[in-house]
């Protein structure tokens, strides 16, 4: 245990914690927007898998990471259109529709992988680290905070952007209104359907980016690559009380715990075979946090409720 | 002619809500819709505002046929609506609620500073005081109503529908509102006004159309009619407008409130060291301007809001100040909330389920561990008939009942529980006069058999008509207690406004 608490180990755990937090953060920020509009999307994990495969395949064939990220974004957007049509235009129940999207993503991403790739090959290049000039060379702090890939920087910069979007823009105000009292918004001529559809598209695009971050940081695709990460991102939204900053705190918690577990395994402090046991830790923390928060913060009042006029 | 509605028909499952209704509104006039609960007034207005689509009939605005598919289309042609049930987003601020659906002066960004500025101008010009930066959930009902009116004024509607706007206002606020409305008609706007209060209808209307069971049953003008006649046109029989209140000697105190301190939603003290007794066989009415702590007082006695540690609420000699609602109910407390949709009824539940909501565990409605559906149905049928609840069936979800009928369901449930002490907030808000007459007679019948009733109402006539003693509440305290014999409307009005030296 003692060799865990050395500066160099702590710095590297911290750095990889931030890196591992990236897909959680992207997915949970997107889901935060969706849920604030009253739409629960349980399909996040499925979207991430499809987008991750899209990014992986593109990177494998073209070695163009920008293109890979773009493909993942488009995949997310496309699935978002489908989910929006089902839940907003056709008023279907959100819970079961989301599970459908998840199952589709799980199966179809694996199918494409088997048919088009077969043997798992790593992508030629993973997301490169980019040291921020000046800041990146500060001892320890630089390595922990300012030597990351562009998607990690982007994900964290999205936090204030989403805060701004929700609090300061007309669209964000509409999102909050339709998630809380869609009848009232409707009575003032705010289109509940259009607002929710847009929120779903933003959410699923972010889930697409999360898939890209996951696969391009790791460098390889496999069946069920996410291993439930998308569901944890949904839990993080609750944990974060539907606030972008809360989502960031939750994502960092998961990233840090994951990084710690990996480090402890490398050191042999906990056996490698105990992977499930160790990855349970953050889930337990989340449940405890949810119990603690219960009653203190309120979910958007119209969450999961389809809206229709007579 | 500003507006013509011709032959409007609208059916809901099991209900003919509008049955070939004709309505004409002139520019610069107030046209009142009068009718019992469930007569179809709100439905007709929701069709006009694009919230419902009519099955038959047409709408003409300034002679031009119009199909209004959505509220935004209605707003675009200059139709505004103040809804009977608040159409506000509680988690948003006043300014945000007003700005919803409007084009922002800053493009994609909200322009709340400019909106707030205009709200302040409007509220100053019309005497509708609100703070644009406050979130709506922190506001009392009367304040929320002001926000609704500001929302419509802000949109500068040329035809404004007001669906029971006065139900939650104090007499003074109603007078102020009428000044605003008159100013609006002077500018040439047309108004459609809905109210169950006949003196308001007489004071404000130019034209009156009476509806019953979805059809027009009469048309008149204030100069050609009287309150009694209007009541009869509405209900189809003569109605007693002032309740009979036989003399009863009050018994022992059953509800004793000592040094009650309660915090409001904003965290400041809303009730400050309040003392009050209510005896068996007595109705004590609280008179006060909305927002002076009445709501908090009622909720604290009912157990929905925490009373500060030093407070005492003695219910039949047991201090219940720190007990939960269930225990209070078991000790004989009944409660009719002013927030009927959130605290009084469960919208998705059926009428009969709502009617047994508080004693679903009692022997009467259970067989062993299970609910006895036959007994529940029978209870439902009986109460629906007794309280004249207008509903297609007892299985209809409460949320699709008209406003006044929801109130009747709650009252039916609470009154049949035969409480020893009863807290009643706004019992006839939004209830038609026929039903109000019945509810009043029931409250007095309860009193006559010994129930101690604490009545909270913003309808001063109701307070004076029902109460044996009237307690005037101002800034969280009882500032005067007046026996009914000495109650004068004007004197109480002054006390409510905080004028004590006369
Ligand atoms: N969405 C709905 N679904 C089913 N029935 C409805 C719906 N809205 C109204 N109704 C029914 O239509 C009838 C007319 O209701 P409406 O709300 O128009 O009455 P109202 O005249 O406004 O009454 P109140 O004075 O109580 O507000 C009632 O019987 C009501 O139960
Ligand atoms: Mg109505």
List low-pLDDT spans of chain B.
Answer: none
Largest sheet of chain B: 6 strands, mixed
Overall morphology of chain A:
globular
Query: Largest chain-chain contact?
Result: A-B, 23 and 30 residues
pLDDT averaged over residues of chain B: 88
Bin the helical content of chain A: over 70%
Please tell me the CATH architecture of chain A by its name.
Answer: Orthogonal Bundle
Kindly name the structural category of chain A. Answer: mainly alpha
The number of helical elements of chain B comes to 17
For the termini of chain A, the CA-CA separation is 64 Å
Find the CATH topology of chain A: ABC transporter involved in vitamin B12 uptake, BtuC
Q: What small-molecule ligands were found?
A: adenosine-5'-triphosphate, magnesium ion
Rg result of chain B: 23 Å
Number of strands of chain B: 22
Q: Classify the oligomer.
A: heterodimer
The helix fraction of chain B, in percent, is 25-40%
Number of domains of chain A: 1
Low-confidence stretches of chain A: none
Q: List the helices and strands of chain A in order.
A: HHHHEHEHHHHHHH
- Percent of residues in β-strands of chain B: 25-35%
Shape verdict of chain B = globular
